[in-house]
Amino acid sequence: MTDRVTTFARKALQNHLIRFFFVSGLNTVFGYSVFVLLIAIGLHYSLAVLIGTILGILFNFKTLGTLVFSNRNNRLILKFFMVYGVTYMINVGCLALLKQTGLDLYLAGAILLVPVGLIAYYLNKTLVFNK
After folding, report:
1. CA-based angle 93:94:100, to the nearest 5?
2. Cα 36 from Cα 29, distance rounded (Å)
3. What is the distance of C-alpha 122 from the center of its chain?
4. Rounded to a whole number, what is the distance in angstroms from the first to the last CA of the chain?
5. Mind listing the pLDDT tens digit for each residue in 99-119?
6. Residues 6+ away with beta carbon under 8 Å from 112
7. What is the pTM of this model?
8. pLDDT for residue 4 is more than 80
9. Domain ranges (residues) in the chain
C-alpha cells in the first residue's frame, strides 16, 4: 500500500499542472505570512499589502520558474509581471460579474481559484516559461 502511494505521489509531482497548484499554495502561504508579519510589526495595511504583493510576486517567480517549469532565467520577470496583471484583471472582472448576481464575494473568490489558476498556469507555460 505504501509503495502504491509513493509511486502515485511521484507520478503526480511529475505533472506540471499539479506542481503548479502545489507551488501556488506554497506561494500563497508565503505572501500571506509576509502580510501578517508586516501588520504585526505595525505597518499600515495598505503598505503591508503592497510589500507583501511585491515580495510574493518575486518569490512566486522563483518558485514557479524553478520548481514547476525548470527555468531559472531572471530575464523573464517582466513577462511574469504581465501575466500577473492579466490574471489580476480577469479575477477582478469575474468577481465583479459574480457580485452582480448576488453571490457572496468569499464564495465567488473560492469559485474562481481553479479557473483563474488554470489561466495563470497556461499563460505562464506558454508566454513566460516556454522553452
Report:
1. 95
2. 10
3. 12
4. 37
5. 999 999 889 988 998 899 999
6. 91, 94, 95, 98
7. 0.81
8. no
9. 2-128
